[in-house]
Design a protein that fits this description.
This protein is mainly alpha-helical and 200 residues long. It is built from seven helices and two strands. Strands 1-2 form a two-stranded antiparallel sheet. 38% of the residues are buried.
């Protein structure tokens, strides 16, 4: 399902059109380094988006949408892994149950943000601020859910290897969500500034 979302998103970006050609992979990296400069996890931001811009340069809106879709994919994969580990260890302790609940909430929040993002531009400029606020709120809520899971999970019943993998997966989702929010804020800021110029 998550992979399907990424595929559909990429097709939609193809239909919307790209910002222009990128001369080489080094050119693509330089372009992304500029686009990701406000992100906390800049190298991850570049590496996440590089496969999508090797041949064509996506604009700020498309970059933010791709980043958010990748984040949703990773969040769903992490939820599936934690659920599998919990079943394997036959655990029903509070820490694991709460973490699963938080991850599920996080996935729901990021899913809502992806759907909300897709509505931008479809129902008029007057609704942009509403969509902007919803995306920001839901991604931020997803970040909070992941943080709570990282802080509260992992009692003594789960083996060390599983703990390490879960922590790494959760941290990756957190970093992807943070980068997605940064890219979205950058797009939103540029969009609002452009709209003000066009409509003083």
């Amino acid at each position: 399902m998550a992979q399907t979302i990424l595929s559909l998103l990429f097709i939609s970006l193809m239909m919307l059109g790209f910002s222009g050609p990128v001369e080489s992979s080094s050119g693509a990296r330089m372009y992304l380094e500029a686009q990701c400069r406000t992100s906390i996890y800049r190298e991850l931001c570049v590496e996440t988006l590089l496969p999508y811009v090797t041949k064509n340069a996506l604009g700020p809106q498309q970059l933010a949408r791709v980043s958010l879709a990748v984040c949703l994919t990773k969040a769903r994969q992490t939820k599936e892994y934690v659920d599998m580990v919990a079943k394997r260890f036959n655990k029903s302790d509070q820490a694991i149950e709460e973490c699963l609940h938080q991850i599920n909430n996080g996935v729901n929040q990021i899913t809502l943000s992806v759907k909300e993002f897709q509505q931008i531009g479809k129902d008029g400029e007057e609704n942009f601020v509403l969509h902007e606020g919803n995306v920001q709120s839901w991604v931020s809520a997803g970040l909070t859910d992941v943080d709570m899971c990282i802080d509260g999970l992992l009692g003594d019943g789960i083996g060390g290897r599983e703990k390490t993998i879960i922590k790494a997966k959760l941290l990756n989702v957190k970093q992807l969500a943070s980068n997605s929010l940064s890219l979205f804020n950058r797009f939103a800021s540029r969009h609002r500034a452009s709209h003000i110029v066009k409509n003083p």
